[in-house]
Write a structure and sequence with these properties.
The complex is a heterodimer. By secondary structure, chain A is an all-alpha fold. Chain A is built from 13 helices and no strands. Chain B has one domain (about 90-320): MetI-like (MetI-like fold, Orthogonal Bundle), CATH 1.10.3720.10. Helices cover about 70% and strands about 0% of the residues of chain B. In chain B, strands 1-2 form a two-stranded antiparallel sheet. The longest helix of chain B has about 35 residues, at about 30-65. Chain B is globular, with a radius of gyration of 26 Å. Classes of the chains: A mainly alpha, B mainly alpha. At the A-B interface, helix 1, helix 3, helix 4, helix 5 and helix 6 of A face helix 2, helix 4, helix 5, helix 6 and helix 7 of B.
């Protein structure tokens, strides 16, 4: 084949395959703007005749600002708390001479290979025993404590800091907290970007944990609110409104993903290859 | 993740630097005590959380499998009763069959489609970055979002899937309530959700395939398609195995949220995997002990998958 023809073919292939993969999401956007009649019609039109923006207002009212606020509290709470406990731990395990380092690392690695749903029941039992059902503490703390990935990711990064840098600061009389706070942390931005993007996406998209631990409206998160719309075809809410709700649920993660895409992918590849 | 090197000076080793430390920080016992104390303080919050919410549940899950408990009363030790019940429970056998089918139907197509798509986007033509985002988007849809979308797509009457089939004169089923088609419908959806990760991992694998192997084969006049299967595919074999294990584990456990939301395990239990069954036993029947035994059984399955993959690696190494 002629090279230029081949390149054109390659480009077309990239675009077509990408669009095929994205069809469900493109449908979500177009469907979210259809009228109730259009979305139930046979044949269903691919695009709405006139976009019904009211669907988004209805979806917003159905979801309620409180649910959206709860989801932000939960996701940012998990990310923040994980940062708070994992960063110092990772720094200590990478840089401070400590005789338990090896044992701690070995303990952290093992449970990483166990899928989360296998520990769902006992984790629920622990949270239940603490009296934390239907509370933000019960929602956030047990998830933030799943910090092995964060610690290992940050430790790997801190380990690449040249020992000379740290020695020099120590000689100048800086204590470990200062070395950590004013030398190691400011350099950790790439690792922070990777971690925050992965952790935020994971927390925002969680369904089963919030469902079993905090089903009450006061702590309900967006995925728990949305899921019933996918269950019944006899729901009183138009499927178009459900799709509008799905769009709303995806906007924050889409923004985070597009902005931090490069770091997110680095993290996924890094964990996959270990 | 590999971080970029931060300074151009080669890092001196800690041992070499130690004798130069001046008196302000004598390398004495006091200093070591400060180190240990600081390390303990830095590590404790994370380790306390890890102990309570990772170690305790892991051990607790094992222990609970030997008890009968409804979450509110006192747990009663029942020995191996839950384990025996496991093997005599027809619902468990059906769920096990569903789990195996999910894995069998899901993993191989995910690998092959993912590999081909990774080869397609593995190029540095202008604007590729923007198009690649399309390939990654299924990853950021949560189970609930994906469920809402696909319930509409699979709708027996107005769904796009059946409209598409109608173009070819095929009268599509009512996917999610049809005992034959509900499972394939969920598998297709799970493949869609799993592809981005597979593509990302294959892209990383393809970067490590040396360019010169293609140069040599172009001279031999090998076609692109043949090149793909006889040169590229064997060269990413390590990635393929990793993906196979990750996806097998993923289909054992990941089928669960989607089935819970979309079909609730039905119709007739055809989409009720082990994970969903143990969830229902725990949270609707409140039979914590038996649910824990079911989880334990899944863990054994996953360990078998991992050991199998190791055995494959070993025999493969011995042959080459």
């Amino acid at each position: 084949m002629h090279p230029r023809l081949y390149n054109a073919f390659r480009y077309a292939l990239v675009v077509v395959c990408g669009l095929v993969l994205a069809i469900p999401l493109l449908f979500m956007v177009s469907g979210s703007l259809k009228s109730a009649r259009e979305i139930n019609a046979f044949p269903q039109p691919l695009l709405p005749e006139t976009p019904i923006w009211q669907n988004f207002a209805d979806a917003w009212n159905f979801l309620t600002p409180q649910v959206i606020g709860n989801t932000f509290i939960f996701s940012l709470g998990v990310v923040g708390l994980q940062l708070l406990i994992s960063l110092p731990a990772a720094f200590a395990l990478a840089k401070i001479p400590f005789k338990w380092t090896g044992l701690i690392l070995a303990t952290l690695v093992v449970p990483m290979f166990v899928p989360a749903n296998l520990t769902l029941i006992p984790l629920f039992v622990v949270t239940f025993q603490l009296g934390w059902l239907n509370s933000f503490a019960g929602l956030i703390i047990p998830m933030a404590a799943q910090c092995a990935f964060a610690i290992l990711l940050f430790r790997q990064f801190f380990a690449t800091l040249p020992p000379g840098l740290i020695e020099a600061a120590r000689i100048d009389g800086a204590g470990w907290p200062r070395v950590f706070g004013s030398i190691a942390l400011p350099l950790a931005k790439p690792a922070l970007a990777t971690f925050c993007s992965i952790s935020f996406l994971t927390a925002w998209n969680m369904y089963i944990w919030p469902l079993v631990v905090a089903p009450n409206p006061a702590q309900r998160v967006i995925n728990v609110a949305l899921a019933p719309l996918a269950g019944g075809e006899n729901s009183t809410i138009s499927p178009a409104v459900g799709l509008a709700g799905a769009v709303i649920a995806m906007i924050p993660v889409l923004i985070v993903f597009i902005v931090l895409q490069k770091w997110y992918i680095k993290g996924v590849v890094g964990t996959g290859l270990e | 993740m590999t971080a970029p090197p931060l300074t151009k000076t080669p890092p001196p080793s800690a041992d070499a630097a130690r004798p130069l430390v001046p008196a302000a920080h004598p390398p004495g016992r006091r200093n070591r005590r400060v180190d240990a104390l600081t390390a303990t303080l830095f590590v404790s919050p994370a380790m306390i959380g890890f102990f309570i919410f990772v170690i305790v549940p892991a051990v607790g899950g094992l222990v609970l499998a030997f008890f009968e408990w409804d979450l509110f009363g006192t747990p009663v030790f029942v020995g191996l009763d839950n384990i025996v019940r496991l093997f005599t429970d027809p619902d468990m056998w059906q769920a096990l069959g569903v789990t195996v089918l999910f894995v069998v139907m899901g993993v191989i197509p995910t690998i092959i489609i993912g590999f081909l798509l990774a080869v397609v986007v593995n190029s540095n033509m202008p604007g590729i970055g923007a198009w690649r985002v399309l390939y990654f988007t299924p990853m950021i849809a949560s189970a609930a979002v994906a469920a809402i979308i696909w319930v509409n797509l699979y709708n027996g009457r107005s769904g796009l899937v059946n409209q598409f089939l109608a173009l070819f004169g095929v009268d599509g089923p009512n996917w999610l309530s049809d005992p034959t088609w509900a499972r394939p419908a969920l598998v297709i959806m799970m493949i869609w959700g799993a592809l981005p990760i597979v593509i990302i991992l294959y892209l990383a694998g393809l970067q490590r395939v040396p360019e010169d192997i293609y140069a040599a084969s172009s001279l031999d006049g090998a076609g692109k398609w043949r090149q793909l299967w006889s040169m590229t595919w064997p060269n990413v074999w390590g990635t393929t195995l990793l993906i196979a294990v990750l996806q097998a584990v993923g289909f054992v456990s990941g089928s669960f949220e989607i089935a819970l939301i979309m079909t609730d395990g039905g119709p007739l239990g055809t989409t009720q995997s082990l994970a969903l069954y143990s969830y229902k036993v725990a949270f609707t029947q409140r039979d914590i002990g038996y649910a824990s035994a079911l989880s334990l059984f899944q863990l054994v399955l996953i360990i078998v998958i991992v050991l199998l993959s190791r055995a494959i690696v070993r025999t493969r190494k011995e042959r080459s």
